[in-house]
Every structure is written in structure tokens, then in C-alpha cells.
């Protein structure tokens, strides 16, 4: 589990996926070798950019990919590029991914239960490292990130889940999933799975368009207010999801009003007095995946009980009315296909007569 500081500097969080990292220099690494077994080089070279516009070019698909965490690993599995992955950090717990994806994920070598140690990453044999985290020392005092020169020396191209990792640098509020869709499209181009990427993006657009048609016409003043309670970031001082974070787009697309929409950036620590002043209509119990349904349910119960028994929050409208949503943090704050599923789930809960039953 990442610390509060790590959480704040993860700009997850979420977010174009294959752009080389936020605030990093020019694209690093040597040219990737031939694509995995029998793959064509059609569609190459592929060039992607980082947050500052620096370019990284791929002349063929990488075949030894390391992912920083479960979110980027899941995207590769969904794209059908799982056999190109040789390791990951922050691995998904057994049973946390659906069916076939879970079985594949459990076969991936775990290079770090949290952040992959620097030397282990550089010595992994990877030709591509996909990083979901912001390039700010990987946050939380959990180990130094390699420099771009060190990545280059090791022959590793370093790219980021841009819509997550670079959220803090966005110049305007994020109100749709286009950056996430661009991530998936870019990752598909780099790994030679563009057709699958298009299918995933089309599926996301279909779900979001259906929600927009159902609730998009609701006047701003009639939309319910919504607070994402990041339980794992700590309860002493809540962590607000601000308007550059992908969760803000998810909440907005679902027809709700993020109570901290006026906060520029990705995350910000606020006080409980600020939450009380907002008095949200709905609260999402955002807990991180514990590795099993039973463990997740327990964490959701704990988050709800805390709100119901804490003197500062038990009088909130949402708490008194039991207006809670039990939706995990990752699928809300980190870029992925399930962002669209979360839009749909929130809308069905808040607008049961329009968007269908939850």
C-alpha cells in the first residue's frame, strides 16, 4: 500500500499512456528488438511524447516489459500483450482481476510488492518500463527512481501512464476520458495491438455515451454533490480529489458534482471542516484493492463505520441518509478501461430512474 505522500504524488490518480514520463527529459533507451513471436513490424516506427513534448520512438514492439503496478499490467493484459510482460511492482492480489486476466496476472514475476527497487528494475532485462507514478522520486520515501540516464544505460525505454502520472501538470480541469483513451490507443500502437486497443476504447465510449444521454442534460444545480473519501490516504486529514485527477472526470461524466472541483491540481490535503462545509449528497468509499472480495468488503465496512462514528462526519447528509458507494480507488483514480464502468456504476446509483438500477 502506498503512503499518503506517495498517493498524493501519484498523478495515479491516471491518465497518453505511452508517453515517456512527466517532467523527464528526452526519450531514453536503445531501440527495442523485434516484436514477440511472429509479430509483424507493420505500423512502426511509433513515436510517443512525454508531458513536455520530448519524443520516444519504437521501431518494433517491445518484448520485455516491466510495469510499475497492477493498473498498467491490467491494460497490457486486456490488450493481449501479456506475454511481453516480464515483471511488475504493486502486483494485483489473487482474484482481483476478472477470470482469464487474473490467471495471467498471477504468472507475472513480482519484482516489488510496492515500488520496484531501483537496482532490481535496472537489472530486470526490460526494454520498456511503463510507470504509473509521477516522476517525483516515486513518493513516500519508498526508494529512489532511476534517472533517465540510468534507464538509457540499462537499455530501458521509460514511459508513463500519462493521464494518471501527468495529471498534476494539466492546464485545465479534466472532464472526460479522452486522455485515458489516448493512453490505450498509444499503448496499443507501441505493443502492436492497435486493433484490440480500438475495441477497448470503443467499448468505453459506448458506456460513457449511454450515461451522457441518460443524465447529461441534468442542470448543474440539480446534480448531486459527491465526495471521494480516500480512506487509505488516512483519516486524520482527508485527501481531496481535485479537478486535474481522472476521478474528477469520472464523477462529472456520471452526472455528479465533485465537491472539490474548485481545487486545481490532482490531490490536496484538506480539513474535515472543509468536507463538513461541503456537506455532500453522496460519498464514495474509495478503498484500495485488498486482494479478495471479502477483504474489500471489510475495508468498505471500516470506512463507512469511521464516517458514521466520527464526531466530525456523522452529521453529514450523506452519512445520515446512508448514501455510500462501495467502489474501489484504483478503478476511479487510475487510468484504465474500468473508468468507464465506474462512470456507469455511479450514474446508476445516483439516477436509478434514468440510468438504470445500480
TrEMBL record:
Provenance organism: Streptomyces viridochromogenes
InterPro entries for the chain: ABC_Transporter_SBP, ABC_transptr_periplasmic_BD
The Fe/B12 periplasmic-binding domain, residue ranges: 64-354
UniProt signal peptide: 1-19
Similarity annotation: Belongs to the bacterial solute-binding protein 8 family.
Keywords from the named record: Signal
Keyword Endoplasmic reticulum annotated: no
Protein name stated in the entry: ABC transporter substrate-binding protein
Classification via SUPFAM superfamilies: Helical backbone' metal receptor
Amino acid at each position: 500500500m502506498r503512503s499518503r505522500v506517495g498517493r498524493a504524488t501519484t498523478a495515479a490518480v491516471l491518465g497518453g499512456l505511452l508517453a515517456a514520463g512527466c517532467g523527464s527529459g528526452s526519450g531514453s533507451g536503445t531501440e527495442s528488438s523485434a516484436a514477440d513471436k511472429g509479430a509483424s513490424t507493420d505500423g512502426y516506427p511509433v513515436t510517443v511524447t512525454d508531458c513536455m513534448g520530448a519524443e520516444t520512438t519504437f521501431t518494433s514492439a517491445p518484448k520485455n516489459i516491466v510495469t510499475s503496478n497492477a493498473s498498467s499490467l491490467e491494460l497490457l493484459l486486456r490488450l493481449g500483450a501479456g506475454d511481453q510482460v516480464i515483471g511488475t511492482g504493486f502486483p494485483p492480489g489473487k482474484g482481483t482481476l476478472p477470470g482469464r486476466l487474473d490467471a495471467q496476472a498471477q504468472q507475472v514475476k513480482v519484482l516489488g510488492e510496492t515500488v520496484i527497487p531501483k537496482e532490481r528494475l535496472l537489472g530486470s532485462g526490460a526494454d520498456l518500463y511503463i510507470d504509473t507514478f509521477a516522476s517525483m522520486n516515486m513518493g513516500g520515501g519508498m526508494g529512489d527512481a532511476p534517472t533517465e540516464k540510468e534507464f538509457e544505460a540499462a537499455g530501458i525505454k521509460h514511459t508513463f501512464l500519462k493521464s494518471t502520472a501527468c495529471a498534476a501538470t494539466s492546464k485545465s480541469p479534466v472532464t472526460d476520458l479522452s486522455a485515458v483513451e489516448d493512453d490505450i490507443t498509444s499503448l496499443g500502437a507501441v505493443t502492436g495491438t492497435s486493433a484490440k486497443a480500438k475495441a477497448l476504447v470503443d467499448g468505453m465510449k459506448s458506456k460513457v455515451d449511454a450515461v451522457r444521454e441518460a443524465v447529461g442534460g441534468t442542470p448543474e444545480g440539480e446534480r448531486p454533490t459527491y465526495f471521494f473519501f480516500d480512506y487509505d490516504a488516512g483519516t486524520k486529514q482527508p485527501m481531496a480529489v481535485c479537478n486535474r485527477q481522472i476521478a474528477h472526470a469520472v464523477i462529472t461524466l456520471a452526472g455528479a458534482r465533485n465537491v472539490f472541483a474548485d481545487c486545481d491540481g490532482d490531490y490536496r490535503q484538506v480539513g474535515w471542516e472543509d468536507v463538513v462545509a461541503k456537506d455532500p449528497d453522496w460519498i464514495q468509499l474509495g478503498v484500495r484493492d485488498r486482494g479478495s472480495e471479502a477483504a474489500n468488503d471489510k475495508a468498505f465496512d471500516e470506512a463507512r463505520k469511521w464516517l458514521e462514528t466520527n464526531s466530525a462526519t456523522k452529521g453529514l447528509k450523506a452519512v445520515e441518509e446512508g448514501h455510500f458507494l462501495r467502489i474501489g480507488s484504483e478503478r476511479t483514480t487510475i487510468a484504465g478501461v474500468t473508468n468507464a464502468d465506474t462512470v456507469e456504476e455511479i450514474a446508476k446509483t445516483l439516477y436509478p430512474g434514468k440510468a438504470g438500477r445500480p
